[in-house]
Structures are given as structure tokens and as C-alpha cells.
Write a structure and sequence with these properties.
This protein has about 325 residues and is mainly α. It has helices at about 1-20, 25-40, 45-70, 80-105, 110-145, 150-175, 195-235, 240-275, 280-305, 305-330. It has one domain (about 35-180, about 190-320): Up-down Bundle (Rhopdopsin 7-helix transmembrane proteins), CATH 1.20.1070. α4 runs antiparallel to α9 (about 280-305), α5 (about 110-145) runs antiparallel to α6 (about 150-175) and α7 (about 195-235) packs antiparallel against α8 (about 240-275). The radius of gyration is 26 Å and the shape is globular. The two termini are about 45 Å apart.
């Protein structure tokens, strides 16, 4: 068995280096060496890529739990939970995309797998950002139209936002596979191959616009919350400690949400505008890795802190434990 493996490796190496020796000048030698390297299915593992894969696994695990809790609990069908479910689905796909990128990059590298993995990442992260915007819009409308924002209207608005989120995100993810890539023109490549410079700049500008809109909406939400607190104080002729604590807690939560979103995505967005493919790749990794953390933090902010989802997770865990105990009880004991 070992002799066959050695013979196979020797034949493979001889075939590869024969292509290099056939090159007639330095340019052809470089091209031949590049083609030889591309034939190796096991590229050396980059620690940064390994970090992305580990982060993707954590993201996929967290958001799978959120999706399972929402699907398992019939009471979690309100518009707010549908938006949280959309966000969890987008983040789940982002986690899977990071895992697939690692697999395709180091086990089966090719142009097709590169387009597929990068397209999935673009679509999933775009859907995640758009879902965050949709949640912000829903919260603003629910406060601004507190009396007229009925369940019917809320559901219709929610469905429209979810459909728009996934249609736009899917189109953005399909653009590289449809031809908007730099596979045939390396000079047009951005800091993330095979995305072009124009594509990555478009994504960065879009994020900055989304962030500006979210900042404006959260500012309006804070004003509405403070105005409601003042109205309550005038009705009761004093501002109780509970009202003050609730208002401050609500504003602090909004600041944490917006601050986390900006801290995760702003470095990569700015670097996408000023960075170039000639820059050291460590800058790309150092700015892109924090952006992926946003998908790991989203379940904590939007799902695990929600009391209804906490109850659903508890019931789900208890149900699994009960099923496991019942199955063991039905198993005949050893004689």
C-alpha cells in the first residue's frame, strides 16, 4: 500500500515539474509554478482562515439554537420574532459561509468554489445588515405609531421588509457569479478576491448609508422614549425612579446596539474604501474578522436577552431532556 502511494506521489510530482521545465522564459516559468501550486489540493492553513472557520462554527451554533427555538414555539410568530428569525437565518448562513470558505480554500480551491463561497458570504452578511435595519425600522414605527400600528399593518410591513431584505441580498451575492468579478482582470481585484474594487466600494458605501439611517432612527427612538417619560412625569406630577431607570436602560441598550454594530463593521468598511490589493493581507484579515463578530453578538443582543425566547429555549431544552430520559427508560436493561 505504501509503495503505491509513493509511486503515485512521484508520478504526480514529475508531471507537475515537467510543466515548469517546459517553460521557455521567466514569465512562463512563473505561470507554470503558479499552475503547479494551484494543483495542490491542500494549501497551507492560514491561522487567520482558521480563526474565520472557528468563528463561523460559533456563529452557526448560536443562530441554529435561535432558529430552533422560534420554529419550535408557536407563540413566537409575532412580527418582531419574524425579524429576529430573519436575522438569525442570515447570520447562520454567514457562519456556514465562513466554514465553506475555509473548506474550499484549503481542500478544493477553484474559481467556481471561490465565487460560490464569496457570493454566499456577501449575500448572508448583506442580509444580516439589512435585517438589523429592518428591526430598527420596526422598533421606530412601533413607537412612532404606538396607537395605530396595528397587528395587521405590522405583519404586512414585516413581510415586505423581509422579502426586500432577501431579494436585495441574494442579488448582491449573485453578482460575482454573474460576471462582476476580477478573475479575468487581476488589476481590478479588491482586497477580497474575486470581488472587484467597484463592488467592494459599493458594499462599503451601502453599509455606511445603512449605518447613517440606523443612527438617525435610533436618535429618533431616544427622543420618543424621553418624550414619553416626560409625559408620564407630567401626568403623575413627578418622575419616579422606576421611570428614570427604565428610560436610561432603554437608551443604554440602544447605544450598545448601535455601538456594537459600528465597532464591528466600521473598520472593514473604511478599509474597503482606502485599501488596495497591494496592501499586506493582514490588514484585510484584521478588519474583516471583527466584522464577523457582529453575527456572533447579534443572537446575544436580539434573541438571548428576550424573555419570550429565553422561555422557548428553556422549554426546548426540557423537551429534549424529557425525550432523552423517556427513550432511555424504554431501553431494556442489561441482564
Amino acid at each position: 500500500m505504501s509503495e503505491n502511494v509513493i509511486a503515485h506521489l512521484s508520478l504526480n510530482l514529475s508531471c507537475r515539474w515537467s510543466r515548469v521545465l517546459e517553460a521557455s522564459d521567466d514569465t512562463n516559468v512563473s505561470a507554470a509554478v503558479a499552475s503547479v501550486d494551484s494543483m495542490n489540493p491542500l494549501n497551507p492553513i492560514n491561522p487567520w482562515d482558521l480563526a474565520f472557520c472557528i468563528t463561523g462554527s460559533i456563529i452557526a451554533a448560536e443562530n441554529s439554537v435561535v432558529i430552533a427555538a422560534i420554529l419550535h414555539t408557536p407563540t413566537l410568530r409575532e412580527p418582531m420574532f419574524l425579524l429576529i428569525g430573519s436575522l438569525a437565518t442570515a447570520d447562520l448562513l454567514a457562519g456556514l459561509g465562513l466554514i465553506f470558505y475555509f473548506i474550499f480554500q484549503h481542500i478544493y480551491p477553484s474559481d467556481m468554489t471561490s465565487l460560490t463561497s464569496v457570493g454566499l458570504l456577501v449575500a448572508s452578511f448583506s442580509a444580516s445588515v439589512c435585517s438589523l435595519l429592518a428591526i430598527t425600522i420596526d422598533r421606530y414605527l412601533s413607537l412612532y405609531y404606538a396607537l395605530t400600528y396595528s397587528a395587521e399593518r405590522t405583519a404586512s410591513c414585516t413581510y415586505v421588509m423581509i422579502v426586500l431584505t432577501w431579494v436585495v441580498s441574494s442579488l448582491l451575492g449573485l453578482l460575482p457569479a454573474l460576471g462582476w468579478n476580477c478573475l479575468k482582470d487581476m488589476a481590478a481585484c479588491s482586497i477580497i478576491r474575486p470581488l472587484t474594487k467597484n463592488h467592494i466600494v459599493f458594499l462599503a458605501v451601502t453599509f455606511l448609508l445603512v449605518f447613517a439611517l440606523m443612527l438617525q432612527l435610533y436618535t429618533q427612538i431616544c427622543k420618543i422614549v424621553c418624550r414619553h417619560a416626560q409625559q408620564i412625569a407630567l401626568q403623575h406630577h413627578f418622575l419616579t425612579t422606576s421611570h428614570y431607570v427604565t428610560t436610561r436602560k432603554g437608551i443604554s441598550t440602544l447605544a450598545i446596539i448601535l455601538g456594537t454594530f459600528a465597532a464591528c463593521w466600521m473598520p472593514f468598511s473604511i478599509y474597503s474604501l482606502v485599501g488596495d490589493i497591494s496592501f499586506p493581507s493582514i490588514y484585510t484579515y484584521a478588519t474583516l474578522l471583527p466584522a464577523t463578530y457582529n453575527s456572533a453578538i447579534n443572537p446575544v443582543i436580539y434573541a438571548f436577552r428576550n424573555h419570550d425566547i429565553q422561555k422557548a429555549l428553556l422549554l426546548l431544552c426540557c423537551g429534549c431532556l424529557t425525550t432523552g430520559v423517556a427513550s432511555r427508560a424504554r431501553t431494556p436493561s442489561d441482564v
